[in-house]
Structures are given as structure tokens and as C-alpha cells.
Write a structure and sequence with these properties.
166 residues; mainly beta; Lipocalin; ten-stranded antiparallel β-barrel; 10 strands; 0% helix; globular
């Protein structure tokens, strides 16, 4: 049974696999297909643990990975549930995204935007991101916009992942 504090995000729990399409912000190359395994799970902490591994669809080479925690917050006076997402990436970027859960006629969705981005000296020139996550038709769908260097937010990743049988 999922802990009471985590129930608003219970729809995200699971291992999700599938394909997506990526774009290099600023048009620095052609769009590319990728394969992803994304996992959101209880790890004994009061939050949901998260990990994602992305590989090239063509040859299976590593492209990206990140890990972190989904941190739902108690509902505020307007019944809005805040969500914090704390991420770290192997490329030397750590990020905190802040957002909220919205429940609508077609289901729940979470919108997040960067609050803090910290980078090592050798990390990519990543400055911000904005994310939308939802489960529709049994698929975990997301869209990520990314800002890098002097460019503003631009479409970066989008996928529709199937729930895997664990």
C-alpha cells in the first residue's frame, strides 16, 4: 500500500518503457529517436524515487540518465498539491523543479519548472527546463522544454511510455 502522503502521485508509480523523440535546443542537429526506461517507486523514504535511462534507438548507446525524488507537498488552502522534483544527472547537472498537480476531466497531470540549476564546470550549458507529465490511455506521457546557453526554452524531449510488467 502506498503511503498516504504519496497517494496524489500514485498514478506515476511503476516501470515505464518506450520510445520518444528528442531535439537539440537551438536546432544544433536533426531530431533523434530514443528508447527509455523510467522508474518511479517507493524506496522507503517519504518521497517517490525516480530513475531514467535513455539510449539511442538506432544502436543502443547511452544518451542520458537522471535520478532523483518526486516530493508531493500537502494541499494548500485552495487544495492545490505542490510537487517538487529533485534531479541529478550524470552529466554534472543537479536541478530542483517546482510545480503542481492538476486534476482535470481527462486525468491528473503535473507541470514543473526549474527553480534551481547547479552545474559542474564541465557540465553542458544547461540553464532551465519545463516539464509536463501525465498518464493518458495507460501511457506515461511527458514533454520537456530545455534552455541551454543563451537560448530560451525550446522543445527537447517527448515520449509516450508503456507500463512494464515487473
Amino acid at each position: 500500500m502506498v503511503a498516504e502522503a504519496l497517494r496524489p502521485l500514485e498514478f506515476l508509480i511503476g516501470t515505464w518503457r518506450g520510445e520518444g523523440v528528442g531535439a537539440i535546443p537551438g536546432g544544433g542537429g536533426p531530431d533523434y529517436p530514443y528508447v527509455e526506461e523510467l522508474r518511479i517507486y517507493e524506496d522507503g523514504s517519504p518521497w517517490l524515487a525516480y530513475s531514467s535511462r535513455v539510449t539511442a534507438a538506432a544502436d543502443g548507446r547511452w544518451l542520458h540518465s537522471e535520478a532523483g525524488w518526486w516530493r508531493p507537498q500537502p494541499a494548500d488552502e485552495s487544495d492545490t498539491i505542490g510537487v517538487e522534483l529533485v534531479l541529478t544527472r550524470a552529466t554534472g547537472v543537479t536541478e530542483i523543479l517546482i510545480g503542481h498537480l492538476t486534476t482535470g476531466p481527462v486525468g491528473d497531470q503535473i507541470e514543473l519548472a526549474s527553480d534551481v540549476v547547479a552545474r559542474t564546470p564541465t557540465a553542458p550549458a544547461f540553464t532551465a527546463d519545463k516539464r509536463l507529465y501525465a498518464v493518458r490511455g495507460g501511457k506515461l506521457m511527458y514533454a520537456i522544454d530545455l534552455a541551454a546557453g543563451d537560448s530560451g526554452l525550446a522543445p527537447h524531449l517527448a515520449a509516450a511510455l508503456d507500463r512494464a510488467e515487473d
